[in-house]
Amino acid sequence: MTSRFNLFDNELGGKFAKRFGNASLVIIQSALPKSTQELVQLRVSQINGCGWCADVHTKDAAAAGETAVRLNLVATWRESTVFTNAERAALALAEEGTRLADAHPGVSDQTWARVREHYTDDQIAALVALVAQINAANRLAVITRQQGGSYQPGMFATATAN
């Protein structure tokens, strides 16, 4: 399988990709723990079958000090002992907010209550925005068949700096 299209090589696509990346800065700079951000993005990318995004978030998490054990167990977080209750709440919200097309009723009241238990309003806003944005990023990458494996941590740091 080869990539169909590179948004960065197209003028309009490049402008969109830069603005899309800049929108993520609000989330990145929020009080939502960075490890939670990466775990959520990895789990959503796994659900959506996005190899590119799974590659990015696995490598960025590892570069930030996340352990291989936790990264390997994200897909089975419910059956794992290595995640905090706060992380479990975030992962549940991420899954329920992602599986909307699977006849899922959306985010359950139980999951929402657990999220409210562990996060401030600003962190919740960041978490909801993060789930929405990584789902959009997954769709962009899957539609254009971006493949995982070539990402190097930090390679897009300057793309959103300007």
UniProtKB/TrEMBL annotation:
<dbReference type="Pfam" id="PF02627">
    <property type="entry name" value="CMD"/>
</dbReference>
<dbReference type="InterPro" id="IPR003779">
    <property type="entry name" value="CMD-like"/>
</dbReference>
<feature type="domain" description="Carboxymuconolactone decarboxylase-like">
    <location>
        <begin position="20"/>
        <end position="96"/>
    </location>
</feature>
<dbReference type="GO" id="GO:0051920">
    <property type="term" value="F:peroxiredoxin activity"/>
</dbReference>
<dbReference type="InterPro" id="IPR029032">
    <property type="entry name" value="AhpD-like"/>
</dbReference>
<protein>
    <submittedName>
        <fullName>Alkylhydroperoxidase AhpD family core domain-containing protein</fullName>
    </submittedName>
</protein>
<dbReference type="InterPro" id="IPR004675">
    <property type="entry name" value="AhpD_core"/>
</dbReference>
